[in-house]
Amino acid sequence: MDLLKPEYNLNPVAGSSKGYVHTPESIAKIKNRLITEETKLKMSESAKGRFKREGKQGPFEGKKHSEKSIDLLRTIALNRAKPHKAGVEVEITDLETKLTVTYESIRKAAKAINSDIKSLSRREKSQLEKGINTPYRKRYMIVFNRY
Q1: CB-CB contact of 111 with 120 (8 Å)
Q2: Could you say which of 14, 28, 31, 86 is the most buried, measured as most Cβ atoms within 10 Å of its Cβ?
Q3: What are the residues whose beta carbons fall under 8 Å from the beta carbon of 88, sequence distance 6 or more?
């Protein structure tokens, strides 16, 4: 590394860079870095995949499925058994109205009480760690049921 003298702050020792802080000068260089058109073109070519880089045609490029194949694929997709995926059922009791509603996901529960998913996820984690359930926003009792 010392022989190469890199322009940007690089960690000179192999391993973790945890705790490393860039200097203000290197941050400014990174922010002000301009990507040339040549570099953009190289990045674009790299993203196109192996077949394009080797000047070859992809295995399905320029081909189309027949109507028979499309119908077969459609039939298979429509008859596919969807496996049950693990999720979270959220039961929310409004302490003011005494109404309990069960939602099929944290996302839907969060939307219903005008909250965000992360807040409810952290709340679930806290409930599991501490083993207690306190009212959320002094109004809602929330119970998470993982299945």
Answers
A1: no
A2: 28
A3: 105, 106, 124, 144, 145, 146, 147
**Domain edges within the chain:** 24-53, 88-146
Are 58 and 112 within 8 A, CB to CB? no
Cα–Cα distance between 49 and 31 in angstroms, integer?
29
pLDDT tens, residue by residue, 69-119? 999 999 999 988 876 666 789 999 999 999 999 998 899 999 999 999 999
Cα-based distances in Å from 26 to 10, 17, 129? 10, 15, 42
Kindly tell me the sign of the dihedral angle through the C-alpha atoms of 28, 29, 35, 36: positive
- Sheet strands (E) in the chain: 88-94, 99-103, 140-146
Is the pTM for the entire model greater than 0.90?
Answer: no
Kind of pairing, strands 99-103 and 88-94?
antiparallel
